[in-house]
Design a protein that fits this description.
alpha/beta, 8-stranded mixed beta barrel, 12 helices, binds ligand C2E, binds calcium ion
Length: 275
């Protein structure tokens, strides 16, 4: 193969061109994905360790794109964000999560991820109230997950947004906890009900003593502040044992189940069907 400079340059530019074209194509398809009903919510169970039982599900967006199979959010949400489609998609996800949530037993909550753009949209709390009313889903069973980074963006505005939402009776979880800056001070400044300890910490819990100490401290502090803890990305029994020992409230991860369409869990949450 030719290895001169101009050759490798044209190779790279062609690759970049191809990527741009496929991105543009994806954007065009995303614009029609809602009306074509190509989005779907997968559900991942969350297990309460004290019970132990499934206490909720996190709703995770999927795009069933023709000839590309089922795509996960990192493959299309950034494009949707740039194309200004994120709020429409987020509205759909919220409505769908409430609709499906209403079909679950009353002790089961549903967690929905929010993009910052969605959270800061004027009147967002009203949209949430409408989605709840339209589906008859009790606010106490809806949890909204926001990433820690959101809290760095605005301050008074963020505080007002979160307070409005909590006034509705929904709860707020801080997602990916520990990955942002000054994580702990957020617990003091913002009204949150739960923190979700990021998978990057959980992965190291039985490998690095320092990481184990950090998780134990976070769980202890959260408990003192009356904030619940959920550990994300739990994949092994050893991780589970450590988290249980530290007093973590809930776990979520492949050890329990991958995210799947809700129909896959009917048996689990409703028990075997009576014959
Ligand atoms: P997240 O909220 O942190 O969700 C957890 C991600 O980790 C999910 O990826 C889930 O499938 C994956 N996961 C769960 N357990 C394990 C495990 O044990 N091991 C490993 N390796 N991974 C695990 P997914 O579904 O690809 O979603 C990626 C991100 O996309 C989510 O991260 C969330 O930030 C965002 N997202 C998902 N659904 C929505 C949505 O409806 N709206 C918005 N705005 N964002 C969403
Ligand atoms: Ca999440
Ligand atoms: Ca997370
Ligand atoms: Ca994440």
């Amino acid at each position: 193969a030719k290895a001169n400079n101009s050759g490798s340059f044209s190779f790279f530019s062609r690759e970049i061109e191809a990527r741009m074209a496929s991105r543009w194509q994806a954007e065009r398809e995303l614009e029609h994905a809602l009306e074509r009903r190509e989005f779907e919510l997968y559900f991942q169970p969350i297990v309460n360790l004290a019970a132990p039982e499934v206490s909720g599900f996190e709703a995770l967006l999927r795009w069933r794109r023709a000839e590309h199979g089922v795509l996960t959010p990192p493959h299309f949400l950034p494009i949707a964000e740039k194309a200004g489609l994120i709020c429409d998609i987020g509205d759909w996800a919220l409505g769908e999560a409430c609709r499906l949530g209403a079909s679950l037993p009353p002790h089961i909550r549903v967690a929905v991820n929010l993009s910052p753009t969605q959270l800061f949209k004027p009147g967002f709390a009203l949209d949430v109230a409408r989605a709840l009313a339209a589906t008859n889903f009790p606010p106490s069973r809806l949890e909204l997950e926001i990433t820690e980074s959101v809290l760095l963006l605005e301050n008074a505005a963020t505080h007002a947004c979160l307070s409005d939402l909590r006034r509705l009776g929904v709860s707020i979880a801080l997602d990916d906890f520990g990955t942002g800056f000054s994580a702990l001070s957020h617990l003091r400044a913002f009204p949150v009900d739960r923190i979700k300890i990021d998978r990057s910490f959980v992965q190291e819990i039985d490998i690095r003593r320092e990481t184990a100490s950090i998780i134990r401290a976070i769980v202890g502090l959260a408990r003192e502040l009356g904030v619940k803890t959920t550990a994300e990305g739990v994949e092994t029994p050893a991780q589970l044992r450590k988290l249980h020992g530290f007093g973590c409230d809930e776990i979520q991860g492949y050890l329990i189940s991958q995210p799947k369409p809700l129909s896959a869990f009917r048996q689990v949450v409703e028990g075997p069907r009576a014959r």
